Amino acid sequence: MEDIQLAVAKKLLDINTIKIQPNSPFTWASGWKAPIYCDNRKILSYPETRTFIYKQFAKVIREKYPQAEVIAGVATGAIAHGALVAEELGLPFIYVRSKPKGHGLENLIEGDLQPNQKVVIVEDLISTGMSSLNASHAVSNYGADVLGMVAIFTYNFPTANQNFKEAGVELTTLSCYQALIQEATTRGEVQESDYQSLMEWREDPANWKK
């Protein structure tokens, strides 16, 4: 899996999906200062990378969850990726909204999902994991069985790892923060002098550079 994590990190860097600016941090919606910004929606504009990602997802699901009956995408970033995975596997696809639709049937889950069906959830990015786990809870509350979640990238925050552990949801990611920083350092896109600061951010992002 380590080889795949580095391969995916290379592809994300190649198409500028990820920007690393330790000396000019971004501000996330949470208010956290962050040396990195990840926009996996860009993947959809690059056919070779897009295909590589959904085929890797399909490979993981075939190996870990051969009993999967439905693929679910988390709105909005993982809807397209999830649909591509479902097409590759020949499985039904649904997606989970962040909140119920404000009109009509007020659906939280879009598509046909039956109680007791076995579901694998596709996500594009894991930060704290809370929005992803909310999608998992929505599927479980519907009466379906969440086998696990797969995602393109995780910052690998300790709090996220703890959240997934407490929720009892198995998470598999195609790449992670450590692999990304390793590859970016090898390329010279991250200076050795910034490495320690980047690692400190991952350990305690809420208090980094305060």
Structural features, described:
This protein is an alpha/beta fold. It has a domain of 146 residues: 3-Layer(aba) Sandwich (Rossmann fold), CATH 3.40.50. It is 41% helix and 22% strand. It is built from 7 helices and 10 strands. It has a 6-stranded mixed sheet with strand order 7-6-5-8-9-10, with helices on both faces. Strand 8, helix 4 and strand 9 form a beta-alpha-beta unit. Helix 1 crosses helix 6, helix 2 crosses helix 3 and helix 6 packs antiparallel against helix 7. The longest helix is centred in the first third of the chain and has 18 residues. The radius of gyration is 17 Å and the shape is globular.
Main attributes of the structure:
globular, two-stranded antiparallel sheet, 7 helices, 41% helix, 6-stranded mixed sheet, Rossmann fold, 210 residues, alpha/beta
Number of helices: 7
CATH architecture of the domain at 2-17 and 46-175: 3-Layer(aba) Sandwich
Average pLDDT reading: 94
CATH class of the domain at 2-17 and 46-175: Alpha Beta
